[in-house]
Design brief:
Elements lengths: L6 E7 L17 H9 L1 E3 L2 E2 L5 H10 L3 H4 L15 H7 L3 E7 L23 H6 L9 E5 L10 H9 L21 E3 L7 H18 L4 E6 L8 E3 L26 H5 L27 H32 L5 E7 L4 E2 L5 E2 L6 H4 E2 L1 E4 L8 E3 L5 H4 L23
Parallel strand pairs: 1-7, 1-9, 2-14, 4-5, 4-7, 6-8
Antiparallel strand pairs: 2-13, 3-12, 9-13, 10-11
């Protein structure tokens, strides 16, 4: 493959707090992400354009802000007519693949805005056995839609579990798809059938296929963790001792001058009815008060989810070494957006930009081509950092997107 056309391995997590890297936080173990940061550049001030999944993921593949590409919120759809990086990669001679989470479309489609990531096609396994793209410019896709044990499980991930002998995969997922609503913090699924294993295995297979064919590739390994719910298989569920972890807390008075919806999160029975004017689900508009001991247990699992993912990220980096492609591959790691796990007295997501959900972990490595290893203070949004912007686009195009529905 041409040395002037390096491969690109793009690795993303989902809803990962920027401080959950061992290189930045001694309480968590991420040896493979740490080696990626040590070999290349760790961006300590990277930000996303929107602290929720669909808008930022759409920005990653279009290089445009949510106000421009139209997928401005959860429950909206990135229209198929949007120009994406996949089209530019094909024009440049690359083979492109996406394995894991897409979330460019909502869980509930309409006649006007149909969605392949919606019911019932989401779980039509016969359809997914024959569909592998193209999808938003990517030549090959293998997709899933569930976070941990969500009932949205299906698509290529369910097929992979069946093909690998887990015929009873529904025993590890919630109703109505599955039959197990009782899993808390410990996910009973064997690790070898965890979606981290699926994403790594299939991404490695595709990188090998492209390398053996002498083709330059863009491979996107799109992991689902550590997006809640907080759930991880054994033995990872006991990796961290909650009593040894720092539990972030609200600073008294810090929300006094913040918008009122921040203040309401610190009340036992807040009234958010004035914000419910569109009929759209409002993430985080609820009480955020948590028992510190229970929150510490959640943090322990959240960290374990990151550490488990780190193991499989290591297998991707090892595969590049095995294929002899490490020096000819730009590796980029980032997350779509951040997370609260007690910071400012908040948990998970809350509508509106704030340091923790908008601040993103971001590292990249390309031996001999990246700048000298170290940290960088880069403050641009995702559209700038991953450098997926294209020439000749209509920057002034600020059209509205489709009507929102319920999504997460």
């Amino acid at each position: 493959m041409p040395q002037d056309r390096p491969n690109i391995l793009f690795i993303t997590s989902d809803q990962q707090h920027f401080n959950t890297l061992g290189a930045l936080n001694p309480e968590i173990s991420t040896p493979n992400l740490d080696r990626l940061a040590a070999d290349g550049m760790l961006f300590e001030r990277a930000y996303c354009p929107n602290p929720t999944c669909t808008p930022t993921r759409a920005s990653l593949i279009t290089g445009r802000y949510p106000s421009q590409h139209g997928a401005y919120s959860l429950g909206t759809k990135l229209l198929e007519g949007e120009h994406t990086i996949g089209e530019d990669l094909r024009a440049a001679g690359y083979q492109s693949a996406l394995v894991g989470k897409a979330h460019f479309q909502p869980l509930h489609g309409t006649d006007e805005y149909p969605s392949l990531e919606a019911y019932p096609v989401l779980q039509d396994l016969d359809f997914w056995r024959s569909f592998h793209g193209p999808f938003y410019g990517f030549d090959h896709v293998e997709l899933a839609r569930n976070h941990t044990d969500e009932a949205h499980v299906g698509q290529h991930y369910a097929i992979w579990m069946e093909e690998n002998g887990l015929d009873n995969w529904r025993d590890y997922f919630r109703e109505p798809t599955g039959n197990n609503n009782d899993q808390e913090r410990t996910w009973e699924i064997p690790e070898e059938f965890h979606y981290d294993a699926w994403i790594a295995e299939r991404t490695n297979a595709l990188m090998q296929q492209y390398t053996e064919a002498g083709e330059s590739f863009f491979a996107w390994a799109s992991f689902f963790d550590p997006h809640p719910k907080y759930l991880v298989p054994r033995p990872w569920d006991t990796m961290y001792d909650p009593s040894q972890l720092t539990v972030p807390q609200v600073t008294p008075g810090e929300h006094d001058k913040n918008p009122p919806h921040f203040q309401l999160t610190q009340q036992r029975n807040p009234d958010f009815s004035p914000w419910r004017v569109t009929g759209q689900s409002l993430h985080g508009f609820q009480c955020h008060l948590r028992n510190p001991e229970e929150l510490a247990k959640d943090i322990a699992i959240y960290y374990a989810m990151v550490s488990l993912m780190d193991k499989y990220i290591g297998s991707l980096l090892d595969k590049l070494d095995e294929l002899g492609q490490a020096d000819n591959t730009l590796v980029v790691f980032t997350t779509d957006h951040g997370h609260f796990y007690g910071q400012h007295g908040l948990v998970a997501k809350l509508r509106g930009h704030d340091q923790d959900p908008a601040h993103r972990a971001h590292a990249r490595s390309h031996p001999g081509r990246c700048p000298q290893p170290g940290a960088a203070d880069a403050r641009g949004p995702a559209a700038d950092h991953v450098q997926l912007r294209r020439s000749g686009r209509a920057d002034g195009d600020d059209r509205r997107g489709p009507e929102p529905g319920l999504d997460r």
